[in-house]
TrEMBL record:
InterPro entries: CheY-like_superfamily, Homeodomain-like_sf, HTH_AraC, HTH_AraC-typ_CS, Sig_transdc_resp-reg_receiver, Tscrpt_reg_AraC-type_HTH. It comes from Romboutsia faecis. This is Stage 0 sporulation protein A homolog. The lineage of its organism: Bacteria, Bacillati, Bacillota, Clostridia, Peptostreptococcales. Keywords: DNA-binding, Phosphoprotein, Transcription, Transcription regulation. May play the central regulatory role in sporulation. It may be an element of the effector pathway responsible for the activation of sporulation genes in response to nutritional stress. Spo0A may act in concert with spo0H (a sigma factor) to control the expression of some genes that are critical to the sporulation process.
């Protein structure tokens, strides 16, 4: 069953789009519209079963939309949203052919689902539920492409996708790479909220971009990739990027340290971009690192790749063939921290990542970051993060 939500208030629009797991209930949220005029244009282009619409909107209100739908012989069901003071408008909507109404202030997931299932049953009984084989086929294609992208962008490069689908969706497309500031996404709940929010923004902008494919992949913790197959100009993609960054900052107080738009000829270019940005981030202790001399960057790279091993000034000086005292001095001059502090900080940040794996024992986490004494590791972790490793893991997975 194919759904269209029409609501001028951004917060309400996104609340309605995320309150239900549409796929789980065999429903497709086709698009989000900001007013009746935009909704009417969508309905003329798309097959829609259910319209959920506000009544008071700019450009074209809900009742005018209902009248227009009646004129074009819309066969689906219309559910209207109202406030307590909208009784006269609701009465007019029901008179014009609205199926049901919901109060905005009391709307719940179960209430909305109940009305949608009732509408579905009525559409099936009247044989008006859309059964477009082409739509089913396209949805199936996009699902396969999404499943492929989900694995590929997370590093499973040996998987294969049908050559026809690759040619249709993954040739000459746009790629948006977004990386949120790590400290802004500090637990699993924030990760889920960020992913869901970006998805909602994408849905609300889908009509403007007019894409053949728009796939959001949550690559890892604070990294996201958006594949967009469209014939539209680059300005539309840049507008989407601005909408995402602005709204995420405004509503979630999360900032992005990287937002990169790249036109790609094939999918491997996406993975190359991701890996390149990750390599850059390995150097970014602070803004000074990019300008560091080559030897310091080499030391940083060596430390990041060998955290489980013994690391000290003597070993690192040999890596770059430098005098120990000289290396120690220039490292501190360029990064405003000692080599030992950098090693300690990097090990603890890596430990935070490893602690998110529930199956990994804390002892094994400690050894994996080069700290053999679990008791010392726990004391050090607690000093840095004001909580024990066990408390951090519990907080991260706390719903």
């Amino acid at each position: 069953m194919r759904i269209l939500i029409v609501e001028d208030e951004y917060i309400t629009r996104n609340f309605l789009s995320s309150i239900i797991n549409w796929e789980e209930h065999d429903m497709i949220l086709v698009s989000l519209a900001k007013d009746g005029l935009e909704a009417l244009n969508i309905i003329k282009k798309e097959n829609i079963d259910i319209v959920i619409t506000d009544l008071k909107m700019p450009k074209m209100d809900g009742n005018t939309l209902i009248k227009n739908l009646k004129e074009i012989k819309f066969k689906g069901k219309i559910i209207v949203l109202s406030n307590y003071d909208d009784f006269s408008s609701v009465k007019e909507a029901m008179k014009n052919g609205a199926y049901e109404y919901l109060l905005k202030v009391t709307i719940s997931k179960n209430e909305l689902l109940e009305i949608l299932e009732k509408a579905r049953a009525d559409l099936i009984n009247s044989n008006k539920l859309i059964k477009d084989n082409n739509i089913v086929e396209i949805s199936s294609e996009k699902l396969k492409v999404n499943e492929y992208l989900e694995m590929y962008l997370k590093g499973e490069v040996n998987i294969i996708i049908d050559s026809n689908l690759e040619e249709k969706y993954l040739r000459n497309f746009n790629f948006l790479y977004l990386r949120a500031v790590t400290t802004d996404v500090e637990n699993s709940e924030k990760e889920k909220k960020l992913s869901s929010f970006i998805s909602n923004v994408i849905n609300s902008c889908a009509l403007d971009v007019n894409s053949k494919l728009m796939s959001l992949i949550h690559i890892r913790r604070n990294e996201f990739g958006i594949i967009i197959k469209t014939d539209n100009k680059i300005d539309d993609i840049n507008l989407l990027a601005r909408n995402i960054t602005r709204n995420v900052k405004q509503y979630l107080n999360i900032k992005f340290e990287k937002v990169i738009h790249k036109q790609c000829k094939e999918i491997k270019e996406c993975l190359e971009l991701i890996e390149n940005e990750r390599q850059k981030s390995n150097y970014q202790i602070n803004s000074k690192v990019i300008g560091c001399r080559r030897e310091i960057k080499k030391i940083i790279e060596y430390i990041n790749n060998n955290l489980e091993k013994k690391l000290n000034l003597e070993i690192l000086a040999k890596v770059v063939n430098m005098n120990e005292s000289y290396l120690s001095r220039i490292f501190k001059d360029e990064l405003s921290m000692t080599i030992s502090d950098y090693i300690k900080n990097t090990r603890l940040e890596k430990a935070k990542e490893l602690l998110k794996d529930k199956d990994m024992r804390i002892k094994d986490v400690s050894i994996s970051v080069g700290i053999q004494d679990q008791l010392y590791f726990s004391r050090l972790f607690t000093k840095f993060f004001n909580m024990t490793p066990s408390e951090y893991r519990e907080k991260y997975y706390k719903e």
